């Protein structure tokens, strides 16, 4: 018995020694893990110090910064207990909505902690809703014979402030829609070769300038009769003189070009004039601050303001010359090798081709923006430069870019619908119809008059089609009108009238275009033009 107890005691001591060794080994492993975690913690602290911007502390003492109270709004939760964790997470990530005292709504754009990924679920819901509703709206317009773009505009009306008011990220939707304009103008330029641009450049330059001058002259005349300030008259006339490039681009998609040597087709003239109007838009945006100062100036300082406007015009013309010189260099030395490299790298993988073309569009867009010329012109020139590489290149790139353009164009036309207010149109329907018809008829008559003077005698027949394409008002009047209203150039009532007249003119545009095509285009070309 004593021997058995001794053996058990030895076994217990042996087990205790082994347990002690295992514990020491575990403690050693834990100490190594603690050291690693401590190093990671220090590295994480350094990272947070490097990437954290003390935006509040850095800007609260800047001149012109004011403290303002805001409301923080959480979404209504049907079941607070089930969604409590979700609410806590969103509160921690800062994804709730803020509303200031002027009823502007804000959603997080840059978080304090950039190491945690975030997604703006408001924006995601908005895009998903637009995508789903645009399908039945587009089908409905196709069924009754209207262009699908009006279905997308109706989609925006239904979801916008005048409808269900379900769109929360209006600014983000409009920003994404601008890319639809960029890709649309790129594809327009892709079908618009430099040879065609060279053929109609004089008409494209002279026509919009003459029309704008005549519109301003008529605006000042009516402003004098109605006792409207000259600054307001000039602004309204300039807004109404612009025409919608995206809309007309959709009309011209797949239209037939002139095949005869020396013949000028209506699509070339119309696109050239619209691109020039986009340049005028950039010029007018640049001149607008001076126009605001001129409205508040005395007669003694008007001469200085006029001189400042002339200097701005000179700067824009210099920028245009620099842009076209750069395009000549790119066409001669760069675009050919660049596309061949893209084509060689993208065999079996269209991703490289799409990325390379998109990067080239954004490069041209950035260059024209830096030179104070409209970004739309840069997109158009990017397409025109690539089209110089031949028909096969054009077809390949168009097949890749068109699906992207179509989706973004849906967002763009839906964003236009967000600014359409049917109730205001119904209340003032008689006045708005009179104003819209007056503007459309005036623009049509002025375009016919100007084109009759500058078009060759052999191409006089296209003046009716081009005038019909220019008779509506550009959607960019929404942008100009909002800026002018904030600056005090126009009142709230005039701003709503401009929005409504623009919308109604865009709705009348397909009927006027179809009538001009049916009247002036020969039957073989009519099928593809309509």
Automatic annotation (TrEMBL):
<keyword id="KW-0813">Transport</keyword>
<feature type="transmembrane region" description="Helical">
    <location>
        <begin position="407"/>
        <end position="427"/>
    </location>
</feature>
<keyword id="KW-0812">Transmembrane</keyword>
<dbReference type="InterPro" id="IPR045158">
    <property type="entry name" value="KEA4/5/6-like"/>
</dbReference>
<dbReference type="InterPro" id="IPR038770">
    <property type="entry name" value="Na+/solute_symporter_sf"/>
</dbReference>
<protein>
    <submittedName>
        <fullName>TMCO3 protein</fullName>
    </submittedName>
</protein>
<feature type="transmembrane region" description="Helical">
    <location>
        <begin position="209"/>
        <end position="228"/>
    </location>
</feature>
<keyword id="KW-0175">Coiled coil</keyword>
<feature type="transmembrane region" description="Helical">
    <location>
        <begin position="351"/>
        <end position="371"/>
    </location>
</feature>
<feature type="domain" description="Cation/H+ exchanger transmembrane">
    <location>
        <begin position="133"/>
        <end position="512"/>
    </location>
</feature>
<dbReference type="GO" id="GO:0016020">
    <property type="term" value="C:membrane"/>
</dbReference>
<dbReference type="Pfam" id="PF00999">
    <property type="entry name" value="Na_H_Exchanger"/>
</dbReference>
<keyword id="KW-0472">Membrane</keyword>
<feature type="coiled-coil region">
    <location>
        <begin position="30"/>
        <end position="57"/>
    </location>
</feature>
<keyword id="KW-0406">Ion transport</keyword>
<feature type="transmembrane region" description="Helical">
    <location>
        <begin position="432"/>
        <end position="455"/>
    </location>
</feature>
<keyword id="KW-0050">Antiport</keyword>
<dbReference type="InterPro" id="IPR006153">
    <property type="entry name" value="Cation/H_exchanger_TM"/>
</dbReference>
<feature type="transmembrane region" description="Helical">
    <location>
        <begin position="494"/>
        <end position="513"/>
    </location>
</feature>
<feature type="transmembrane region" description="Helical">
    <location>
        <begin position="137"/>
        <end position="159"/>
    </location>
</feature>
<keyword id="KW-1133">Transmembrane helix</keyword>
<dbReference type="GO" id="GO:0015386">
    <property type="term" value="F:potassium:proton antiporter activity"/>
</dbReference>
<feature type="transmembrane region" description="Helical">
    <location>
        <begin position="306"/>
        <end position="330"/>
    </location>
</feature>
<keyword id="KW-0732">Signal</keyword>
<feature type="transmembrane region" description="Helical">
    <location>
        <begin position="179"/>
        <end position="197"/>
    </location>
</feature>
């Amino acid at each position: 018995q004593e021997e058995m107890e001794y053996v058990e005691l030895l076994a217990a001591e042996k087990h205790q020694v082994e347990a002690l060794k295992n514990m020491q080994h575990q403690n050693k492993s834990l100490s190594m893990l603690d050291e690693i975690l401590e190093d990671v913690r220090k590295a994480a602290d350094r990272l947070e110090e490097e990437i954290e911007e003390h935006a509040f502390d850095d800007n609260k003492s800047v001149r012109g910064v004011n403290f303002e109270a805001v409301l923080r709004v959480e979404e209504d939760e049907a079941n607070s207990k089930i969604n409590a964790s979700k609410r806590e997470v969103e509160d921690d990530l800062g994804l709730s909505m803020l509303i200031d005292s002027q009823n502007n709504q804000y959603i997080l754009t840059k978080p304090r902690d950039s190491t945690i990924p975030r997604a703006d679920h408001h924006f995601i819901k908005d895009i998903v809703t637009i995508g789903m509703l645009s399908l039945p709206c587009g089908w409905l317009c196709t069924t009754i014979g209207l262009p699908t773009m009006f279905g997308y505009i109706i989609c925006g009306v239904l979801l916008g402030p005048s409808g269900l008011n379900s769109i929360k990220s209006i600014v983000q939707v409009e920003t994404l829609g601008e890319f639809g304009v960029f890709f649309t103008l790129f594809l327009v330029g892709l079908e618009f070769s430099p040879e065609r641009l060279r053929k109609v450049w004089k008409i494209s330059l002279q026509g919009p300038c003459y029309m704008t001058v005549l519109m301003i002259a008529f605006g000042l005349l009516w402003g004098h009769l109605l006792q409207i300030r000259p600054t307001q008259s000039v602004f309204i006339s300039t807004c109404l003189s612009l025409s919608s490039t995206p809309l007309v681009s959709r009309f011209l998609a797949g239209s037939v070009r002139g095949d005869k040597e020396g013949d000028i087709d209506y699509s070339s003239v119309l696109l050239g004039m619209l691109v020039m109007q986009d340049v005028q838009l950039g010029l007018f945006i640049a001149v607008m601050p001076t126009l605001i100062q001129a409205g508040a100036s005395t007669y003694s300082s008007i001469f200085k303001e006029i001189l400042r406007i002339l200097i701005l015009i000179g700067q824009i013309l210099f920028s245009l010359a620099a842009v076209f010189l750069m395009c000549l260099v790119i066409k001669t030395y760069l675009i050919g090798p660049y596309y061949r490299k893209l084509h060689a790298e993208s065999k079996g993988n269209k991703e490289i081709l799409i990325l390379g073309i998109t990067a080239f569009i954004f490069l041209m867009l950035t260059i024209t923006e830096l030179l104070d010329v409209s970004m739309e012109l840069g997109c158009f020139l990017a397409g025109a430069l690539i089209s110089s590489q031949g028909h096969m290149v054009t077809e390949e790139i168009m097949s890749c870019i068109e699906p992207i353009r179509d989706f973004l164009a849906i967002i763009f036309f839906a964003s236009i619908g967000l600014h359409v207010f049917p109730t205001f149109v119904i209340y003032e329907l008689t006045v708005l119809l009179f104003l819209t018809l007056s503007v459309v008829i005036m623009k049509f008559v002025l375009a016919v008059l100007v084109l009759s003077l500058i078009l060759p005698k052999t191409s006089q027949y296209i003046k009716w089609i081009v005038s019909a394409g220019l008779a509506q008002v550009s959607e960019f009047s929404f942008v100009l009108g909002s800026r002018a209203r904030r600056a005090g150039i126009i009142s709230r009532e005039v701003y709503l009238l401009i929005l409504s007249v623009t919308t109604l003119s865009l709705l009348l545009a397909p009927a006027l275009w179809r009538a001009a095509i049916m009247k002036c285009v020969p039957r073989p070309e009519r099928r593809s033009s309509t």
